[in-house]
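G.,

No rush on this.
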Amino acid sequence: ADALNQELRALDALGIDLIQLDEPEVHFRHSQLEGFAVEAIDRAFAGIKARKALHVCYGYSKNIAEKRATPVYPAAIKLLSQTTADAISLEYAQPQQTPDLLENAGDKTVILGVLNLDTEAPVETVQQIVDMASAAVEVVGPDRLELGSDCGMWFLSRDVCFDKISAMSQAAELLRRTYA
């Protein structure tokens, strides 16, 4: 955590707006890490002025043929909600999470993964994204919800990435007008 903090402080000194750490182990090894994960993450983020986010991984879409909601994921989110992070980035679309999951985020901003990154998944429609986000707003409110992808898009073609991000951008604009 201390070594990572040095790296994060160097980024922070450059004036970075957002620093996000990917945290797969709290999901995959929750019972082994719950005793010290919050302290370690807070040490990594100590002294950082930039906005801080944590991404809770489910595993790469290409390596996991079928992601399903697991009972450990809510516990992982609840644990990470105790950190000094400002936001929690969730894999939400592909595992077909439901809005009640978001109750575990405490007072953190939720970066909702609205893009399924399975290579076989179709490009989401703007309306599908709006519907998913609107259901999430019912739990966390519009001021604590941001849209994102489930995870990294490196398995997808450039055209598919562009189409997915375009749909997400259009949905975000509609949501801003709706909840302004």
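When you get to it, here's the other one too:
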Amino acid sequence: MKRTLLGLSLYAMAMSAAHAGTAEVTWGDVDEFHDVRAAADERPGYQERLVNELTAHFQELATTLPEGYTWKVKVTDLDLAGRLDFAEVGSRTKQVRTVDDIEYPRINFKSELTDASGNVVEQRSVELKDMRFLDGVSRASRAQNERLYFEKKMIRDWFHSGEGPKKSS
């Protein structure tokens, strides 16, 4: 078992070395975005955690780009899946995020991809929305409670589709 895990780890490192693109992610004024509000229990530092987590997600995706490529992303708007509602929890009423198929995730960003020589391969504005984000998502997978699951999946699906960053000029 240990040898198998070691082998898989070495393979993963070799594959990430073969693709070593990077991402530079910047954010517009998060306070002006459509919906990045936190439920009551998540307020302190919520926006900072959200920005850090989605930045890390963009950076992780960029590692699959060819070596030397840089993907510059400037997030200009974000609308999280769901909406904030009030719910009774015990004897208290508190704000919780309710996810249904009406309030789908959306993100807008500017994308610029440069190759190892610094030549711009692609530059464009991207507007993503996933109106079918709940299709095919089982309760079990949602129960994993991965923060920003729907937003990350939307970005990942776009990135790996033919619509994501072009990898050659």
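The CA atoms of residues 112 and 123 lie 4 Å apart. The chain has one domain: 20-160.

Enjoy the weekend,
O.
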